[in-house]
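A quick aside before the break. I want you to see a complete sequence-to-structure record at least once, exactly as it would be stored in a machine-readable document. Don't worry about memorizing anything.
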Amino acid sequence: MTEQDLLTDICNKELLNGCYDSKIHGVSIYSVLRVKIRTILYRNAGFYAMEGQMGYNRKNALYSIIKSIMPICKVFLLHKKYSTVFCAFPRLDKVGGIYLDKFTDPLIDMSGMKEDYIIFEHGRGGTHLRPRIHNNRVVYTDLFYAFSCIYVYLFKKRILKRYNGEFSDFKKSVLNAFGSILDEFPVEEYFLVRLTYSKILQFCLKRISAKKVIGPNRNFLLPLFLAARRLGIKTYEYQHGIVYGKDFLYSGYQDPMVVPDIFFTYGNSSSKEDFGITESRIVNIGWALQSYITNVGVKKYNCRDVLVVSDPGITDAIVHTVLRLSEVLPDSNFYIRPHPHEVVSDYHLNLISKSANIFIQDRNVNITEVLYGFNYVLGENTTCLYEALAICKRVGKLFFKGLNPMYREPQDRNFFWEIYNETDFLKFINDKEEKPKMSYYSPFDADIFLESIK
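That is the input. The structure line, written in tokens, reads:
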């Protein structure tokens, strides 16, 4: 069974068994738990599914909670008004020596957004990176989430007594669809914390008279979207990455409480059927970060150095492939770029340390900025490969052992160099042939963006 077959099977079983039917306060329990359940199903079937976050620093989390108190008081107790709420993705990137959310912050700067906005930021693993652009507009929401956890912990028994029927029906539907999958995590707590969090966010949105909510990644935005839906506030989601057909995040039932009013893409190349939303509600505004990066000084690497972009689940294959390639091109340096969620083990670090021309590239520096510094870029299926094509880099897909490159469309292979062995790699480096140019990303159009959020 392929990954696409598995996802099709999951989507069908969800609907056939009424997994979405059980609701509390109008919110489908399954919609809130869907990504968590699908993650477990993928792993049980032998497929990789990315974790939502890496680790959790309690000290940093406590500091963030304390630090969030004063800004929250200023905004909500003084009853300040903000019509636009940006929800920053928790994984910030460093661009030009300062941290930003690569999705929302460039939208603000490149569109000339007026002062009437605020940024909600939830720390990744309890940590907020600084210095940060638009820092005076940022409100940490860690305190809200912490309160939600405490509230559910204190009143769980009382809440469960009230909603025992709903949870019982939900568990039966999932049991019929997927077996005892719910035994692997605390279902009730997981749902109730997010529901409570959304209720707090609902109060916040109402307090500041918000008119629209904008951010990336539907699963991450879910509590905020639920809050906005109850208040009749318009919701906008910005494309989070390239999809290869049916997608883990988007495919399946389109819950109107979760699906945004408008879905912003950064190009026209992906099939609009893959984003889990009606095509008429999809708007291409372009990739604001690319326009933003051109105004920032970029570090240039040697002209024959190679950037190899890795991903969670393929670390071993990438490291051993680069070890082979580095031997046939000893005068060039190879920079392995780990994914932000990827763990590079001591074993792999030791292998890399034995080679004089292989290095780990700093993953805190935004990948778009890094791509501008290289002429040659390699990888498997990462979004970065299409981004590299967009800025006219020579890009190759690695077909070595343990790697399984895919294409969004069959014609996409015309734009990539396919590298099965060392001979293909040397041709990739030395051949004068040029592949056709392709830009998955459209230039950012501020007018379309501003018109869409009126």
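Two observations worth writing down. The chain has two domains: 1-284, 306-430. The longest helix spans residues 142-162. We'll return to this after the break.
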